[in-house]
Write a structure and sequence with these properties.
Helix content: 55-70%
Number of domains: 1
Largest sheet: none
Number of helices: 8
Number of strands: 0
Radius of gyration: 17 Å
Strand content: under 5%
Length: 182
């Protein structure tokens, strides 16, 4: 019985959820039809947007869900750390870059969540523009992306926490928003 205290918990479910978030953010349509820059920053921002949606949905679901999502969050930053190291960033600079990424995540969450809560397409599109398209605004793409995010938030809201914790995440189909008239 005492050996159970030292056993490592299997984190496959958390890993599956993180992989689902990343897979959705890596949909080619975002980079082609939504004009998201296919750069490290562009990919990071789309992962953040999807992670914010997931964590937003899971808030207030209790201690077990909170612990689960904390581990998913930790996986996100472990993956960012590993990616930076693979790109050749020195050990002394990795922690600084991770700190900046953490601040960026929370800054975006603090801007995206109220816009999502209020279903405010214009506010969300403007925030996406500042973060995803800082050098070359794409007003049409930003608005389409905002509509996609709001629909994804709605779909996540219709799913149970248990399904979402098992990695059965049903996002909106981004293809349905690529030609949305704005």
């Amino acid at each position: 019985m005492i050996f159970g205290l030292f056993r490592r918990r299997n984190r496959d479910a958390e890993h599956k959820v993180y992989c689902e978030i990343v897979a959705q953010a890596r949909q080619p349509v975002f980079y082609s039809d939504f004009h998201v820059p296919d750069t490290i920053d562009g990919r990071f921002d789309l992962i953040v947007a999807h992670a914010v949606l997931y964590f937003r949905r899971m808030r207030g679901e209790g201690k077990a869900v909170s612990e689960f999502t904390q581990y998913v969050f930790d996986l996100f930053f472990q993956d960012m750390d590993a990616s930076l190291r693979e790109m050749g960033v020195s050990d002394s600079r990795v922690q600084k870059k991770i700190t900046v990424m953490g601040e960026a995540f929370f800054g975006r969450a603090n801007v995206y969540n109220p816009a999502i809560d209020n279903a405010d397409v214009e506010e969300l599109a403007a925030a996406l523009g500042r973060n995803i398209f800082p050098d070359n605004p794409e007003p049409v793409a930003q608005t389409r992306l905002a509509h996609y995010i709001l629909e994804s938030a709605s779909r996540l809201g219709d799913q149970t926490a248990a399904d979402l914790m098992s990695g059965q995440i049903k996002w909106a189909d981004p293809e349905a928003f690529r030609d949305l008239p704005v």
